[in-house]
Specification:
heterodimer, A: about 300 residues, mainly alpha, MetI-like fold, 2 domains, 15 helices, B: about 325 residues, two-stranded antiparallel ribbon, about 70% helix, about 0% strand
């Protein structure tokens, strides 16, 4: 709304440079949208196309010879089902636990009267910049008995300083008088957290929940590093990676470049598996847009 | 009012009553600190491995201390020198290209006034951020393959006579990685810049119009200076991450033919530490990375302080 009023005046008498700018804006945004969307649409088109027909190439935005066979093939892969199950479980469990843990921590460090407020804050901010690195962390998880179990997906990353800071900034924006009046009525800190602060923090909770859920859904490296041998704890992305990587490694050899179609997994089946893994998030994010935009701008910048 | 005042006076005073009131906060803090020590601070003791010939059986304290031997090995290894170069180069290229793209996108999108054009474009721009690197590299791989869209267009318009195998030549790799980063994160990174632009006082634009400024002038003299603080703080935060920006894409897109330019420190750590079981060497490489990252943050912060800009701490 604000922008409308700012630009109104010169819209009437545009100079030559304004007209050039308009053309540049249109061309830039058009190509940006095409470059962003095309590969995704192409993948969807391929996933609905007949496998043998697709080898001929030339499929762009719509399938040429429609077929649901690729999805049938993907659905028949047992490891895809296992991966999907584990991925859903870890996403749900980690989102809930991590959200609660981060919210509690953010609540504690945003209490102005808390005695160890700055100490605890610093304790966590340091973890953003200093960490043990891949090997010490790997050994730690091994010693704690986390490797080779499902728990390695949700326990270690439960608290993240970044998410905590986003929430803290938001909570600090809530007037202190609310807390004080509740205290006068005899409310303890738990009541203040559960009844007063949390209901006001819905937007930032939604933002952080989305961050965690997306992170969990898209994780593959932990499955590869900690549960490589445990096929029952594989994740969807890791299974997709295995499907795709057999092809990627091949393109390194020159002979294969010429007949790019001769691959281990047909391109259409890879496309179907890709669509299956990205579908839930792609369907969900537009509806959460208003949350993550406000959450990110309020919580993120001010830190 | 009077009560609030007395309560405020007590801030940071270790009165028994205040302590009792804060029991809940203390309990939560206690668990948070225990958790933090286990999962974030305890692994730091593992850095000791970089200075010894670590054997899991002998443990951290029982293994033989070898001083800087592992670091000496690292810096005498030509591969590691190349790995450092790759990490820095790609981190820097990615940082510069993604920042430029985000600022450019935010400014250009801000020039669109019609909400029905702006909103959908913005929604589309977030899409790639929500895709995993597996999906992104998979899609990218197909687009750049011999029968992919890029070669298709190049052949159609006669730029090349034969399809290029982009993943077989080291010269393309850094560019591909930078493109992948930009493709994935431009819309997402632009969110903060767009918010910063919205926060600029509209009167400034109004006044500029009266003085006869055209849109380009306004971008240059109002919008760009307006987002400078945001730009600086994001730059500062990302400088420390330059060395961290190098794992997933390179790991997923790399192959034997481009190894000399695709390997980064993290991949090197994975290769030596996990696959070859040389924990000490892997830790040494990781420690080197952490040390340089911290150094970069401190330097960036100092420079920023000197020029009177925003700073992190």
């Amino acid at each position: 709304m604000r922008e409308d009023s700012t630009h109104k005046s010169y819209k009437i008498r545009g100079t030559a440079s304004d007209k050039v700018l308009t053309v540049v804006v249109i061309i830039f945004l058009l190509s940006f949208t095409v470059v962003t969307l095309y590969p995704v649409i192409n993948t969807v088109a391929l996933s609905f196309n007949d496998g043998i027909d697709a080898v001929r190439g030339g499929i762009y935005l719509i399938p040429r010879k429609f077929s649901m066979k690729n999805y049938k093939t993907v659905m028949e892969m047992q490891n895809i089902w296992t991966g999907a199950k584990i991925t859903v479980c870890r996403t749900v469990l980690a989102t809930v636990t991590s959200l609660i843990a981060n919210a509690l921590l953010a609540f504690v460090v945003s209490r102005k009267r808390f005695l160890f407020k700055s100490g605890l804050s610093l304790f966590w901010v340091i973890t953003m910049y200093v960490n043990g690195g891949m090997i010490p962390i790997f050994l730690l998880y091994k010693n704690l008995g986390l490797t080779g179990t499902f728990h390695v997906y949700w326990i270690p990353g439960m608290i993240s300083a970044f998410n905590m800071l986003v929430m803290r900034t938001y909570m600090e924006g809530i007037p202190e008088s609310l807390e004080e009046s509740a205290q006068l009525d005899g409310a303890g800190y738990w009541t203040i957290f559960a009844r007063i602060i949390s209901p006001l923090c819905k937007p930032v909770y939604a933002t952080v929940a989305l961050f965690i859920a997306v992170w969990q859904w898209n994780s593959w490296f932990d499955a590869m590093l900690y549960n490589r041998m445990k096929t029952e704890y594989t994740t969807l992305q890791y299974e997709l990676m295995k499907l795709l990587s057999s092809v990627m490694q091949q393109s390194g050899s020159a002979e294969n470049a010429k007949n790019g179609a001769a691959t281990i997994t047909p391109v259409t089946i890879r496309a179907a598996a890709t669509v299956v893994t990205m579908l839930p998030i792609v369907c969900l994010y537009p509806f959460l847009q208003r949350y993550f935009v406000t959450g990110l701008t309020i919580g993120g910048v001010k830190e | 009012m009077a009560q609030a005042k007395t309560a405020k006076k007590k801030i940071n005073k270790f009165s028994l009553k205040e302590m009792k009131r804060q029991t809940f906060l203390m309990i939560v803090s206690f668990f948070m600190v225990v958790y933090g020590i286990i999962f974030y601070y305890w692994p730091l003791t593992g850095w000791l491995m970089a200075f010894e010939n670590f054997k899991p059986k002998k443990g951290l304290l029982g293994s033989k201390f070898v001083g800087l031997d592992k670091f000496k090995f690292l810096f005498e290894d030509d591969v590691f020198i190349k790995v450092i170069r790759n990490t820095f180069a790609m981190g820097l290229i990615n940082l510069v290209s993604t920042t430029i793209m985000a600022v450019l996108f935010a400014i250009i999108l801000n020039e669109v006034r019609r909400a029905w054009i702006k909103k959908p474009i913005q929604t589309i721009s977030y899409l790639p951020h929500f895709l995993s690197w597996i999906v992104v590299t998979g899609i990218l791989h197909d687009s750049l393959s011999a029968s992919g869209i890029v070669n298709d267009l190049l052949l159609k318009f006669g730029f090349v006579n034969q399809a290029i195998n982009f993943f077989a030549f080291p010269k393309y790799f850094w560019g591909i990685v930078a493109f992948a980063q930009c493709w994935k994160e431009t819309g997402w990174n632009a969110i903060i810049y767009l918010a910063a632009i919205t926060a600029i006082d509209p009167n400034l634009y109004e006044a500029a119009s009266i003085d006869g400024a055209d849109r380009l002038h306004k971008i240059r003299y109002i919008t760009l200076p307006g987002i400078k603080p945001t730009f600086m703080i994001l730059l500062l935060m990302n400088v420390g991450n330059v060395l961290n920006a190098g794992f997933e894409v390179q790991y997923l897109l790399g192959n034997g033919l481009v190894q000399s330019v695709s390997q980064t420190i993290d991949i090197y750590v994975l290769k030596w530490g996990i696959s070859q079981n040389d924990y000490s060497l892997g830790t040494a490489a990781g420690l080197f990375k952490s040390a340089v990252s911290i150094l970069l943050i401190v330097i960036a912060n100092e420079i920023s302080k000197r020029y009177g800009e925003e700073r992190l701490f």
